[in-house]
Amino acid sequence: WLSTLPPDLQADIMAIISSYPQSQTVFAKLYNHLLNEESLPKRPKTNGSTSISTPQQIQPPQHQVVQNQIQNQNEPSNSVLITLKDPIVEETIIFEIIQTSFISPIRKKMSLIFHLIERNGQPLPVLSIVHPTTRVPEISVIDLTECVKLCAFIPIVGNSSNPSKKSIALLCFWIKDEYIGSSAVKDPIVLQVNLDMVKKQMISQGKLPPDIEHQFEKESPTNVNMNPIQERIIDYFQRQFKLCGVNLMNYLPCPTLSNIKYTLNRDSAVAVSSSNSGNNNLIIVECHRGAKEGVLLFVTGTEHSRSYIIHGFKKPILMFDVAKIMYTSYNNITRLTFNLLLTVADNNEEKTLEFSMIDHAFFQVIDDFIKSQNINDNSFDDTLREKTKETKDEEGEGGAEEEPLNESEDEEDDDASYNGGDGDNYSASGSDVDEEFDSDAGSKSDDSDVSEEEEE
């Protein structure tokens, strides 16, 4: 019945139910009472009386929901990935980010939409990656409260230190493995969000006043923190996500609303903290994994999520629960760089991974995180050094530990980049929505010569 109401009223009721779950029964009784009142004979009008027209009941859109077919009988039956074959109806949309660039699990411009479907007579929030022209979801996820492992706004190294690009950040969703299954896409949902473009979208939708920029002082051209409007957009995101059962963690610097500030902001590393003690909530440093460039993220746990070390953002994106990291170590320490080794428990076996070419200037901030998480340091273990050498030899012979990628994915990874563009890719008009996203477009790196693949 909730899906029959206007979107604004849906959001208000869901907010109340989220805070007071027992109120759902009261709302349902009220709805049934009003339906019964409509079915009663109308009283004759008296002279001078004001007639109140009864609004026509809106039938909830009937999406065809088909659970993904499980290819392997050993896969869990509680997969949260579903297939929606019909275009999303406007009245069911709770929140959307229109036509933005996705990095994972697909690489092209799509829309991210939270919307409602009906299951067993009850409204069910769904997160969908939607084709911006057909409005048909390509990937949809349900049971968001249970299945989302980590959802976060993350600054982009390089953009964070540039005032003209600070508004372009990453929005990431990691789904718990037990809710996906081995045949499904394992990579998280990662997309770039341009907060300045979102501002224009919200103004056009009437969610922000047209003169909002005149309500605040003009920001300094050298300011790398979020401005007051961007802070309020992030806060709006967090409230909308909460309505759908998702706790959105924000790691963008919002000194006014959330006291999140940069403790480190360089072209190759970022750290943010909301604590006066200086303990970092998030650290990001550039590194290499074999021949691939990438970044390491060190995420401190909160009441809503655990602590993680993440390597991204080229496939495969690796995520390690700190609780499953047996020990770390450092090697190849020079005046300029060092390597970090993680030994993790993987199916009751030890697995060691090496991340190299980390700037020595950030050794202390990483070591402080490792010590704060009580991870053992085995830097002086000769056995570990031998294992690392064996791993390198195996990788040199083609026995890489990473998940195998097909040829098209390899080509995608070659021209994919974690570094954001200048924001031109986020224009809501005049862009080819079917064109594959190349996040190195406009950069001066050698990869810019790689031509984009045309989508079939």
TrEMBL record:
The gene is RTT106. Residues 382-392 have a biased composition (Basic and acidic residues). The keyword Glycosyltransferase does not apply. SMART domains: Rtt106. This is Histone chaperone RTT106. It is found in: Chromosome; Nucleus. Belongs to the RTT106 family. It comes from the Eukaryota. InterPro entries: PH-like_dom_sf (IPR011993), RTT106/SPT16-like_middle_dom (IPR013719), RTT106/SSRP1_HistChap/FACT (IPR050454), Rtt106_N (IPR040993), Rtt106_N_sf (IPR044891), Rtt106_PH (IPR040770). Keywords: Chaperone, Chromosome, DNA-binding, Nucleus, Transcription, Transcription regulation. The keyword Ion transport does not apply. One of its GO terms (molecular function) is DNA binding. One of its GO terms (cellular component) is chromosome. Residues 39-62, 380-456 are annotated as: Disordered. Residues 282-380 form the Histone chaperone RTT106/FACT complex subunit SPT16-like middle domain. Residues 393-416 have a biased composition (Acidic residues).
